[in-house]
Amino acid sequence: MLAFSFGRALATNGEGHAMSGSPYGDAPLAPGIRSRVVTGINGLDVHLLEAGFGDPVRPLALLLHGFPDLAYGWRHLMPLLAEAGYHVVAPDQRGFGRTTGWVNDYDAPLAPFGLLNLVRDALALVSALGHRQTALLVGHDFGSPVAAYCAIARPDVFRSVVLMSAPFPGVPTLPFDTANGSAIATPVADPHKLTKALAALDPPRVLYQQYLATREANEDLSHPAQGLHRFLRTFFHVKSGDWPGNMPHPLTDPSAGAFAALPTYYVMERGTTMAQNVAPFEPNAAHVATCRWLTEPELAVYVSEYARTGFQGALMMYRVLADPLLNRELRLFSGRTIDVPSLFVGGTKDWATYVAPGALDLMRSGATTQLQGIEIIDGAGHWIQQEKPAQLGRLLLDFAPKSPA
């Protein structure tokens, strides 16, 4: 088990919960955001940021980050929701940041990182915080499928859901009526066929999900040739609305030719690392100096955290997505849909909306029954909550089924 040092002594609040005014070194945070560690959460000690915590009757807004983000990624949005009357909580998810209790090893069992166990993490956290339900659940990137399964498994607790960047195409289904021989086979995309087709391109390509699931990925990301600071600066830049190369559009089909149109941070050149693929797009000093959504002191939070932990815990999600046993586990909810009010939010400069061809259409047509809208924020790249927090905040507050006031 991990037992990371926090770099400074953490006091306790009398309830056995460690607390600190500054979560990640001297990270800049808006007034009214605090950090604490809540123990005994499905085997974890969960580090979280929270705002609007002074009033015990405030409704809960739970924010779930993705890769390679942290609770810190919600820092610009949290004050906006707190000002509107919410108790806002953003945890470091299992495998990330200052949350401990998970095994930091490529060969560790995958089941603790499975989607349904991450639902248990979220459910246990809501309960530990003294809430019976969330008024608003938001999941970004890999936090999106976690939030989706929260709403599917426990709609009584997670009573609305916002999915960001990653559309939810629905639950894997069980074969129907096969015993009577009258079932109509549903075509299933063959990932191995796409892998072979991408490898046959010139130059050969590989999907980033497959690369990030490899044993080598953690070492590659943790010790890139250009240094961790420059790599993360470039990675955040190239997936943001600031990079002019982001001109996403729906893919016509799941063919290698269609995927070849994606930037190399999504469809990588085979035999290279992620750091090598993004290096040509490193922003210049002038851009860095004017980047207000991720300043150098803010970027330093990510650099120091991943220098301390490495990326393996964060990368386990990619191994989970490819694991047949954990995918079969999701069939427990075969036939279920998201039946609480839902919303999808993407960015006009974010390829993530389209990297799973047809997923957004499936979310609209069958995976949800109370979809309130599909909102694409102009100029936003992948890091919507950091790049466009005011626009996102307005959408969330307009969507929230009930006003907390």
Features:
disordered N terminus; 16 helices; 12 strands; globular; Rossmann fold
Written description of the protein model:
Pfam families: Abhydrolase_1. Residues 62-169 form the AB hydrolase-1 domain. The longest helix is centred in the N-terminal third of the chain and has 14 residues, at 115-128. A 10-stranded mixed beta sheet has the order 1-2-3-4-6-5-7-8-11-12, with helices on both faces. The termini are far apart. The protein is of the alpha/beta class. It has helices at 78-83, 115-128, 143-153, 191-199, 208-212, 217-222, 228-238, 256-259, 274-278, 285-290, 296-309, 312-321, 324-329, 359-367, 384-387, 389-399, and strands spanning 11-12, 18-20, 33-41, 44-51, 60-64, 87-91, 136-140, 161-164, 205-207, 267-269, 342-347, 371-377. The protein folds into 2 domains: 11-175 and 319-399, Rossmann fold (3-Layer(aba) Sandwich); 191-317, no CATH class.
Short description:
The protein is α/β, with parallel strands linked by helices and 405 residues long.
